[in-house]
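[Meeting: bench + compute handoff]

Bench side (C.D.) handed over the final construct sequence. Compute side (W.E.) agreed to return the predicted structure before the next meeting so the bench team could plan truncations. Sequence as handed over:
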Amino acid sequence: MNLSKICAVIKDMKAATLTDHELLKRCQTGDPLAWERFVRTHQQRVFTIAGAYTRTYDDTRDLAQEIFLKIYKNLKKCRDFESLIPWMNALGRNTAIDFLRKTSRHFKHFDDVYESNLTTQDPGPDQIVELKTRKDILLKAMDSLEFIHREILMLKELQELTLDEVSKILGIPIGTAKSRLYHARVQLTRKVTRMTRSEVCSVEL
């Protein structure tokens, strides 16, 4: 092994033994080995955020790469390690929302769940019509919700994240997340009930 390779190995070993605070500081100076370790350390968190807002693996991967790119470009704005995770969560969420707008993509949708039901339950023709009607009503109800309510339902109900994970992504206390989720469910139930009654009345007419 030549001298340059030995130096590279030693530098890599040093990067592997850095504290979180030291790792952040090294990344902020542009150390490529420190950044590589940073990505390995936080890739699960970033993929969780990306996956909460996308429907396909390709979109999740693309969004995760975009989030890491923004983290890299803006890392010097992070003051210390204690503020790193909240800062990353906020940046990841904002990047995800921009990604949806820029690509004309939408949140993961309840139609994925209904399609799964159709393929696993082997329903008859009448049940297929009923499921489609219920799906259409639910989608319309979801789309009519305020963004903050639609967002928390997607994160909690479809992504099946814990309230703790949801609160961290949204940057709000867990108590606020619980309250927001409760009101989102109430609003969705009211809208679905109202739309269902309207659908029944139109059928009867």
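W.E. noted at the follow-up: The radius of gyration is 22 Å. C.D. will use this when planning the next construct.
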